[in-house]
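Incident log entry.

Two folding requests arrived from the same account within the same minute. Monitoring flagged them as a possible duplicate submission, but the sequences differ. Recording both here for audit purposes.

Request one:
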Amino acid sequence: MSDKFSLLSTAAFLAVAIGSPALAQEAAPAAAPAGQDAQSVDDQTADEIVVTGLRGSLSNAANLKRSSNQIQDSIVAEDIGKLPDTNIAELLQRIPGVQIARNTRGEGNGYVVHGLKQVMTTVNGRQLFTVTNRTATLLDFSADILSGLDVYKTATADQIEGGLGGLINVHMARPFDFDGFHIAATGAAAYSDFQNKISPRLSGVVSDRFETGAGEIGVLIGGQFERVYSGGYQVSTNAYTNTTSLYDRDGDGTFNVTPADSGDTVQIPSQVRPRYETGNRVRSTIYGAVQWAPSSDLTIHADVTQSHSGGHSFTQQLSVQTDGATRGTPSSFVYKDAPNGNVPDSYTLTNAVVRSVTGASDNPYDTLSVGVGFDWHSGPFKLSGEAAYIDSSGPFYSRSIAIQTRAPTATIDLSGRTPTVAVSGVDLTAASSYTGSVTYSDLGQQSIGREPSFRLDGTYELNGPITSLQVGMRYARHRAINDVYSIGPTVTLTQPIGSVTQLTPNDLFTNQDVPINQWLAIQSRYIMNQDQTRALAGVSAVDQPYPLTNHYDYLENVWAVYGQANFAFNLGLPIDGNLGLRYVSTKNHQSVYDATLRPVSGEASYNNWLPSVNIRAKFTDNLFLRLAYSKAITRPDFGNLSPALVLNQLQLTGSGGNPDLQPTKANQYDASLEYYFGKSNYIAGSLFQKDVTGFVQKFSVNETINGQVYSISRPRNTGSGTIKGFEVTYQQFFDFLPSFLSGLGFQGNYTYVDSALPVVGQSITVPADLLSKYSYNLTAIYEKGPISLHASYNWRSKSVQTNFADNFSRTLWNAPQQSLDFSLTYNLNKHVSLKFDATNLTSAYQYQYYGTPDIPTVANQLDRAYQLGVHVNF
C-alpha cells in the first residue's frame, strides 16, 4: 500500500504565470460535460474575447479538460469536417498517453491508452464495436462527420465498463448543438505518393431547428464518402528458427547428424521476401438525428448511422526459401559477432526455390447503429434513458497464386536493418523461368456482431457537501458469430504463365541498396477479382464450405447497476469529485464443434464490483490536483475466443484463438496536477499505475502441422503485472510577442510507460504488446488573420508486436517510429476556407526485429499522402 499511497500523493509543483486566468470560448458543437466549475463556458462574461479556428478548438479542449470531473483530454473540431486528421486513430496520437500503430500502408489503425490496448469506445455514450472486436477499429471511421472526441483516463461509475486503458467517447453532432440553421461541407482531393493516384473525399452536414405547436424539433442529416489510396514497400522474413543441419559451424567435421550437434546451431529465417503492397479503401456514412423538445423539461432524441468500410489490398511478393526441405544447398556462411553469433550476417544457397506470390484481400463490412432516448428534468430530478441496437457484419476474403522457379545461386544478407536477397543464374522477369509448381491459397471469413442494449440514468441534485446522487442501470446482449475456411492446394494454371503475368514496378526502396526490385507476377486483374482468381487456378467458383471446427457462436448477457455521489466542500481549499460503485454481472454461452464434429457448448458467469473515486483539490482557481482510484475489467475479444486456426501456407505462419480466456482485471491509481493560464494555455503532469491480473497477450510457438513447421500465434492469460508511468503536457499561444509573432503557439506532450507482465510457466516478465516506453508529440502552431497552420512531429520508442512464448529472444519488436505531418488552412472569408494537408512527410520506415536489432525481419517504407480541399459553412 505504501507504493500506491506514494503514487497518489506525489506530484511535481507546476506554476507558470503568463497571461490572464480568463478562458476563451468558441460556439462549438461539442457539449461541455457535467460538473463544470465556476470557470466553465456557461459562466463566462459577455465582454470576454471569443476565439475561433484552431485556437478556438484548442481553447475548448482545454476547457473540457479543466471542467471535467475526472482526468481527461479532448479534441474539439472547429466545425463539422474540420478535425485535423483524416481518421480517428490518427487524431488520437495528438493526445498525451495515447500511442497509435500503423498498418503496412501507413494508416493509423490501432491505439493504446496508458500502455493498454483494451480501450472502451463509445459514440455519444453508446458502445461501439467492430464485428468480433470489443474495441472499434477507428481506421474505418472518418473524422469528417465528427464534432470531437474525449479520452477519459480515469473511470466513473456511470461509464460503461470494459476499458483498462481508458474510454474514448466520439461526439457526433445533434441538431440542438447548433443555434439554428447550419450547413457545413468539405470537398477534397487526396493524393497517394506510392500509387500516384488522386481520390475524392466528400462530407456534409445540414441541421435546423423549428418551433412547432408541439414544441421545438431539430433535424440533422449528414453524410460522408471517401476513397483512400495507400501503399507500402517492404522487405521481410518470417520467424527465425534454430537448425543444426545447415553448416559445420563448430568445425568438428560433422553436421546434420542424430542426435543433433548443438555446436552447429544456426538461427535463420525460412524465407526472405521483398514486396509491393497497395490499398484501396472506401468509407461511407449516412447519419441522421432528430431531437424533439415538447416542453422545456423533456427532450426526446433518435438517431441512425449506417456506415460502410470496404478495404481492398493488392500485394506482389517475391519469396526466396532460405530454410526447410526445399531451400537448396547452403554454403559460405559469415557470422555476426556476439551476442547473436549463431545468426549469420550472410550465406549463400544453390538451387534455391523462388516463388512469385501475387495476392489480394477484400474486407467489406457494414455497421448499423440506431438509438432512441430521452432526457427529462424537473426541479432537482433528472432522468435519461436510451435503447440502442448495433449490427456489424461482413466477410473477409484473401487469395493468392504463387508461381515458382529455382535460382542457381541466392545470397541472403541479414547484416543490416533491411534483410535482403540477391539471386543469379535466372531471369526473374522472364515467363520461361517459371516452370515449377503453382500454389493457390484461398481464405474466407464471415463475422457477425449484434448488440441490443438499454440504459436508464437518474440524478438528484442536493444542497450541501453532496451536490448530487446518481443511480442507473444498463443491459446489453451481445452475440458474435464467426466462420473461417482456408485451403492451399497445388494447382495447374488454366492459361499459360506468359499470358497472365506482368512485371512488377521497379522502384522498391530506391533510396536503399535492395538487390531485387522487379520480377514477374500474376496480372492484377486475375487477382483482384475472386472469380477470375479461382478460374485461373482451376478451382471451384463457389466459396469453400466453412469447417464446423472453425465455427463459434458466442452469446453474452451483461447487467450493470451503479450508484455515484458527487461532492463539493471546503477543507481549507475547495475539494470536489465523485465516489461511485458499479456492479456488473456477466453470463456467457459459447457453442463450438470439437475435432469429431460434435457440438460442444459451455456457459460461464462472473460478477464484479467496480469502485471508483475522483478527487479534485483547487489550490487556486487555476491550479488543480486530481487523485483517482478505480477497479476495472475488460473481457476477451470475441475473435480471441474463437477455436479456429488460420494458416498462411506461403509464409508458414498461423493464428488461432483460445476459448479458455478469462477477463482481465486492474486496480488503477492516478494523480494529475494541472495549471491553466491565459486564454488557451495550460501545463499538466500526471502519474499513473495499473496493477493488472490475467492480462491477455499473444504468444507464438512453433507447431508442426501436416509435416510442416508453422509459427502459430495464440492469446493467453498471464499472471499479475504492473504498468506505470507519467505524462507531461504543455500548450500555449504566445500572445505577448509583437506583431505577427503573436500568432505563434505550441502544443507538446511526453509520455513514459513501463510495463512488466509475466509469461505463463516462466520466470521472466515481458512488456505489454504495442507499448512504447517513451513517446512524445510536438506541434508548432501559427494562427493569425486568415492563416492557420500546424506541423506535428510524433516519435515513439521500440515496442513489442508479438511475444514468443518459448524463447523471449525471438519476441517480435517494432523499432522506434516517427511521423511528421503538416496542415495549412487559409480562410477566404468567414464561410469558406481552403485546406492543405500532408502526412508522413519524411516517408518514414517501419523496422521490426526479433529479440535484438541484430536479427532483422521487416523493413517497411510508408506511403506519403497529400490532400487539398475546401470547407464551407453557413
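Request two (distinct sequence, not a duplicate):
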Amino acid sequence: MGMNMTGQTAGRHEAAGPWILRAGGLHGDPGDRSAPSPGRLRRAVFVGCSVLALGLGGLGQAAGQSVSTSGDVDPLGATSPTWTISRQLTIGNSGSGSMTIAGGGRVSSSDGLLGFYDGSAGTATVTGAGSTWTNAGELIVGILGSGALTISGGATVANTMGSLGLYTGSTGAVTVTGAGSTWTNSGELVVGWSGTSTLAVGNGGAVASGKGSIGYDNDVTGTVTVHGAGSTWSASAIDLGVFGAGVLTIAEGGKVSVGTGGSGIVTLASYAAGTGTVNIGAVAGSPAVAAGTLAAAELRFGNGTGTLNFNHTDGAYVFAPKVSGHGTIEQRAGTTILTGDSSGFAGQTTVSGGKLVVNGALGGTLSLASGGVLGGSGTVGGLTVKAGGTVAPGNSLGTLNVSGHVGFAAGSRYQVEINPAGQGDRIVADGTAVLSGGTVDVVKAPGTYLPGTRYTILTAAGGVTGTFASFGQAGLFISLGLSYDTNNVYLDLARNQASFASVGATRNQAVAATAAEALGRGHVLYDALVQLTRADAARAAFDQLSGEIHASARTALVEDSRFLREAAINRLRAAFGAAGATRAPVAVYAADGPVSAAASTERFAVWGQAFGSWGRWSGDGNAARLNRSTGGFLIGADGSVLDIWRLGIVAGYSRTDFAVRERGAAGSSDNYHAGLYGGTQWGQLALRAGAAYTWHDIATSRSVALPGLVDNLKGGYKAGSAQVFGELGYGITLAQTPIGILAIEPFANLAYVSLSTAAFAEKPDAVALVSSGAASGLTFTTLGLHGATGFMLGSVSARARGTLGWRHAFGDTVPAARLAFAGGTPFGITGVPIARNAAVVEAGLDFNLTPAATLGFTYGGQFGSGLIDQTAKANFNVRF
C-alpha cells in the first residue's frame, strides 16, 4: 500500500511500474513502501518509470504500462486530485519517463522539465477537459535529451517561458490539438534554442505567448505549423530564424496573431546567419492547400535569408501586412492580393504560379516566370515578364504603376481589358520599357466599339524600346492594331477594308448589308454591325434586318386568292350539274319564305361556304421557309338570267397568319372579299368566269438582336388584290360502272391576280424599315379533269368526286419588296417564291343521309417544288 511522505524534502524514486495519483494519495506498485505521500514535494525525480495523474471518470496511462484496479489501488474519489510539487517536475531525467494527466487531473510544479540528460526521453500528455499542468516557472521540452508534450481534448498547460530544444543535440516537440486545448506562455516562447524543435497547433488548438523565437542558434531548425479552422497562435512579436533556421506555416484556416489586434511585427532572419520562412498554405514543393491568416502590421526581412511563400488554393486571399527589408517573396499557387504599403521592400518577388494582385505598393524587383500572373492597380518596383508570364493590370480595368523599368521577353503575355468608352488596362513606368516580343491579348467588355478609338496600354517615362510580337486581332469589320511613339504603346481600333456586303452569303443579306453600311458611322445600326466578329453572326443580323417578311407575305396573299375563285367556279359547276361539283343544297325564296333546294335549282339561290387551309413554302437559299394558315367563310347569291346564264355575287371574310421563324418574323392579314361571277352551258361545253377584289389589313412584327441593339419592330399597312378568272369545261357522261354512273369534265382554268401594297413605316425608328409600296401580277393556268360517280353504301346514296390538275404560274413568281432604313438608301429584297408548277388535287365524298339531309367532306391540296398547301372542308345540309 502507499506510504505517506508528508514533509519529505526530496524524493528519488526508481520503480518498474507506474506511479499513480489517486484521490487518496500517490502510489507506486502495490506492495512498494517507498511511495511518497500526496502532499507537497519540494522536488520529485522519477527514474525509469511513468507517472499517471488520475481524475474523475477514468485512469490515464502512458508508455504502454498497465494499471490494475486490484490490490491496494483505491477507487477514484469524488473530486479530481491535485498533485503539487514545490520545485521542479522532471520527466525523463536520465532515462525514459512519461506522465499522463487525464480526466480532469491537475498537476502543479515550479518548473517542468522533459528529457533532462543526454540520451533521456521525457513525454508528457495532458488530455481531456479540466486536465491541467501549471508551472509557476518555465517549461522546457528537451534540455539535453528529447522531450515531447501533447495537449489535447480541451486540456491546458501554463508556464512563464516556454523552451523547446534547449541545448545542442536536444529535440523538443509540442502538439496542441483539439478545440479548447491551450498552451499559455506568459513569457517568451522559443522553438529551437539550440536543438531542432517543432510546434504543431491544429484542429482548433491555441497557443499564447510573449515574443516567439523560432530557430535561435546557428545550425538549428525550429518549425511551427498552425493549421485548421480555429487553430491560433497569439504572440507579441515573432522572430523567425534569429541565427538558425525558422519556419512558420499557416494553413487551412489557421491564424497567427502578432501584437494587440495584429499590430505586431514578424521578423525573418534577423542576423546574417539566420534563415526565416513564412509559408501561407503549403511549404514550397508540396501540393497547395488552403491558406491561413497572418494578422500583423509588418513582416520585416532582416540581414539573413528570408522568404515569404504563398502556396495556397484560395481564389482571393488578402495579405494585409506591409513587407519591408531585403528578402524573397514567392508566389506559387492561388490568388494572393497584397493590400499593404510594401514600398519599403527591397528584395526579389517571383511569381511562378497562380496570380499575384498588387493593390497596395510592393518595392524591389518583380519577375514573372512561366505560369505566373500579375494583376492589380497598385505600384510595383522593376518588372520583368519572362516567357510564359502574364501581366493583367487592374482588378478589371485598371492601371499598374511601375516605379522602375519594365521588360517583356519573347513568349511573355500582356493581357489588356478594354471597354467601349475608350477605357482600358495600362502600365505606367517611371523608367524604360524594353519590349523583346511578347503577345498582347485583348479582352473586350460587352458593348459597341467604334473605329478610330485609341487605347494607351503602356507608358514609359524613360522611353519605349522594341515592340511586342506581331499583333493583329482582326474582326470582320474592325481590326485591332498596335502603334508606338517615343514613350507610349497604343491599341487602335480601325475599320478594315471588308464591306458589310462582302460577308453576306445571299442576295437579301448583301443588299441589306449595303444599305446598313451606307448609314455610316454614328448611326446605331452601323455601329452595332461594325463590331461583329463572326461571319455567321453577321449573316444572321443581315437576315433579321432585311425585312424579308414583307416580301414573303405577298406569296401567302396571292396564293390565298384561289379560295374565292374556287368557291365561285364550284358554285357555277354545281348550278349546272357539272361533274365533280359539290351538291350542297342552296336557299331559295318561296311564297312562304326561304326554303332549301338542290344546288342545280334554276331559282334565285343563296349559298355559303367555310374553308380552312394550312401550308408552307420552303426556302430557296435566299429567303427562308414561310408557314401560313388561313380560315374564313364566303356567302354568295345567284340567279338565272336570259334562261341560259347564271350570274351572282360573293362576299366574305378570312384571316391569314404567316411566319418566317428563321428570321424571327410573323404577321397576319384580315381579308375582306367581294366579287362577281357568272356562267353558262352550251350543251356539254361550260363557261364560268368572275372577278373579285380583296382588301387586306396587314400587321407584322419582327425581332432584331445585335450587340447593344435589341428591338421588336411593328408594321401595319393596307393592301389590295384584284383578280379575274375563267374556266372552260366539257362534260362527259360515261357508261354505267360497278359503282354507279361515271361523269368527267376536262377543264382549262385561267386566272390573273394583281397585288398592291401601300406605303408604310415600321415602329420604333432605330432600325425600322419604310416602304413606298409595291405592285405585282401573276397569271395561273390550270389544266385538269373533274370527275364524279354515284354509288350506294348500304342503304345510303353516296357520291365520290375529285379533281386532278396541273397548275402553272408565270409573271412575278418571286415576290419582291422595296424597303429602306429610315433616312437610308432603298434596297430590294425578295421573299419565298410561288411554285411555278404544282399538282392540284381534290377529293370529296357526299352522303345523302335522308331525302332532306346531306353530309359532305372535301380535301384539297397543291403540291409543288417547295410547296405543300392543304385544305379541308366539311358541310352538313338539311332541307326543310
